[in-house]
């Protein structure tokens, strides 16, 4: 296991674990971070399995995480991010990677990361980002922030509905029950339920209220 743990850490310091498959990168980061009196690197890992074990053992406040942890997958770090933040909700994950793709930035946040910076970031910006995520704030360098803005401008793809499904949606929006919708459309309640399930599946929604909300945002109703 590629770890170096420190048992005597100042109580006010931010405890950091470095997760990167390149030892030279970890060593460089350690030398930068340990110059700061409020930062302490308490562990290192080069793989997802090592990272899970080190985090469990050292209980850091922050993980600096590369997305690429092996030659097998470019985004293994995404799954690791999700596992770590689900198991340790208080943990702040800051992605530090060479990859800059609009979808990756968004996916990292969806998988639980609090921030995203690329490895060519300067030291001042990196330190600012680390302290920001420790305060439960979001942190993005200029490149990642621009990617987030671009992703927000992309309109979600509008699901394709049949004429009958659109009519059911409209009646759902008026608050009608399945039985009432069936009466309006002269179809059975079972058939209405079938259409509602299809609509929810197409919209990736978990409730009728969410269906109506999402449909109104998309301009479907």
Task: Give the gist of this structure.
The chain has 221 residues and is of the alpha/beta class.
Summarize the structure in words.
Helix 1 (23-33) links the parallel strand 1 and strand 2. The protein has ten helices and six strands; from the N terminus they run βαβαβαβαβαβααααα. Helix content is 51%, strand content 13%. Strands 2-1-3-4-5-6 form a six-stranded parallel beta sheet, with helices on both faces. The longest helix is centred in the C-terminal third of the chain and has 15 residues, at 189-203. The N and C termini lie far apart (56 Å). The radius of gyration is 23 Å and the shape is elongated.
List keywords for this structure.
alpha/beta, 51% helix, six-stranded parallel sheet, disordered N terminus, 6 strands, elongated, single chain, 221 residues
- For the termini, the CA-CA separation is 56 Å
Q: How would you describe the shape?
A: elongated
Low-confidence stretches: 1-10
Order of the strands making up the biggest sheet = 2-1-3-4-5-6
The total strand number stands at 6
Gyration radius, in Å: 23 Å
SSE order: EHEHEHEHEHEHHHHH
Helix content: 40-55%
Largest β-sheet summary: 6 strands, parallel
* Distinct helical segment count: 10
